[in-house]
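Page 37, continued from 36.
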């Protein structure tokens, strides 16, 4: 099956995981070196191979991405959500121009690195799906459907991502991821249509599968033309999806016309063949491929010529207009492609060296619990706080030292006043008022303050204004 779309891979800059992870692991490991240090070196090497460089379109490259993703899952659980490792990733669809470079985003989150790797896993699966679908064997078609369904599940899983918040590159916008998921699922449905045709299933069943595929591509087109993302697509992508929508509507009418031929409904058969040819031709024009469904175009023209000849000479049925055709029945069971859930780990056989690692926590100091200190309630609203009123102790007056009397026994003036020659005696300290007794009283109200003030100024007011004494 040709004319299918593959998602380009995101590109990332060089990051020294070895040095950064050693700085993280050092304080927590019981002893440096050993298997963990070796695993860190291998992880750093693995990232350079599968992320920093463009991986080849091989299953080995996909397995390497699986291993890197699984180790990131373990490391994400070991470290805090925010690290000191800046992971820079470019938008998968943006292109550098003369005026600006590619859109990119740098975040220090293990989860961001993991989500970008998941995006690349889905992108590589879409590329492997196209390679498998180009080989016309049942096993390859089965593998292609498997790849497309897995990629659809990953894009659907990434859609509600909150790793980067509002700082998203366009390829991580929810509407963009929803579109990519729908594209992958519709391309997986194509594989089931091809298998049904190759297995020569009944024409009515194939017609139902084709009309379901047309509906899925119509849903893809609706998602791709939403306001948030409609300018982010390359024009060829939109034309491809439009072409697929027309082509599968034409193919559904082609197989339904064969049902009409078996039932000798020649008039309806002629109309459906005309509708089939017209829509498949439009599909070829929009996809830009003249080979797309070219075999069925040739068959439709051959059957149309035969049906017109039979109707002219034998049946003479009225040929209805396309508007009067009954819709081809749609059944839920015709949607064979299903979204594959994203596993926690892709490679169950791979022994992750970080799985058994236990972070040694630093012992916390013993804290002696003390009685809780009561916390006073804050003053809320207009409540008047209680004010502590102090009752001072009575003040003790200082006692002056006694003077010495003059000697009157000898009648001589030898005696002197003790204040003149003797040093001054230090006075006893004054006992400061001790605020030992307190009681809580409420502050006076505004009316009380006004009454007290009026009692003080009333006499002066009467004398000055009223002339009273």
């Amino acid at each position: 099956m040709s004319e299918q779309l593959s998602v380009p891979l995101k590109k990332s800059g060089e990051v020294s995981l070895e040095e950064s992870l050693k700085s993280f692991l050092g304080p927590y490991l019981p002893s440096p070196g050993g298997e963990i240090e070796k695993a860190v070196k291998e992880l750093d090497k693995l990232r350079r191979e599968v992320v920093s460089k463009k991986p080849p379109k091989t299953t080995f490259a996909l397995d390497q991405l699986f291993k890197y993703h699984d180790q990131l899952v373990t490391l994400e659980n070991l470290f805090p959500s925010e690290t000191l490792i800046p992971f820079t990733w470019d938008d998968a669809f943006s292109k550098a121009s003369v005026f600006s470079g590619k859109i990119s985003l740098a975040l220090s989150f293990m989860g961001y690195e993991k989500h970008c790797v998941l995006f690349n896993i889905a992108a590589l699966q879409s590329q492997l799906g196209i390679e498998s679908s180009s080989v016309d064997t049942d096993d390859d078609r089965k593998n292609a459907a498997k790849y497309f369904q897995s990629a659809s599940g990953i894009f659907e899983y990434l859609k509600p991502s909150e790793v980067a918040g509002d700082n998203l590159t366009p390829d991580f916008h929810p509407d963009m991821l929803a579109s990519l998921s729908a594209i992958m699922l519709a391309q997986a449905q194509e594989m089931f249509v091809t298998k049904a045709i190759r297995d020569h299933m009944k024409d009515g069943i194939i017609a139902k599968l084709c009309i379901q595929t047309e509906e899925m591509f119509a849903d893809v087109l609706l998602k791709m033309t939403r306001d948030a993302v409609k300018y982010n697509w390359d024009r060829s992508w939109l034309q491809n999806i439009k072409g697929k929508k027309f082509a599968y509507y034409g193919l559904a009418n082609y197989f339904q016309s064969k049902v009409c031929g078996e039932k000798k409904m020649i008039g309806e058969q002629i109309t459906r063949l005309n509708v089939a040819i017209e829509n498949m031709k439009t599909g070829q024009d929009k996809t830009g491929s003249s080979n797309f469904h070219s075999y069925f175009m040739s068959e439709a023209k051959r059957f149309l010529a035969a049906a017109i000849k039979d109707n002219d000479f034998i049946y003479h049925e009225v040929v209805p207009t396309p508007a009067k055709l009954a819709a081809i029945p749609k059944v839920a069971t015709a949607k064979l492609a299903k979204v594959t859930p994203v596993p926690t780990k892709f490679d169950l056989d791979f022994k992750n060296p970080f799985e058994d690692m236990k972070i040694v926590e630093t012992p916390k100091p013993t804290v002696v619990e003390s009685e809780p200190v009561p916390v006073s309630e804050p003053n809320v609203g207009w409540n008047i706080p209680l004010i502590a009123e102090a009752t001072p102790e009575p003040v003790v007056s200082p006692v002056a030292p006694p003077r010495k009397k003059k000697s009157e026994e000898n009648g001589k003036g030898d005696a002197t006043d003790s204040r003149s020659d003797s040093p001054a005696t230090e006075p006893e300290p004054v006992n400061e008022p001790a605020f030992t007794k307190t009681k809580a009283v409420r502050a006076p109200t505004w009316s009380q303050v006004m009454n007290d003030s009026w009692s003080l100024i009333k006499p002066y007011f009467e004398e000055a204004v009223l002339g009273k004494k």
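Confidence is low (pLDDT under 50) at residues 360-392, 412-423, 432-441. Flag for discussion at group meeting. The first helix runs from residue 17 to 25.
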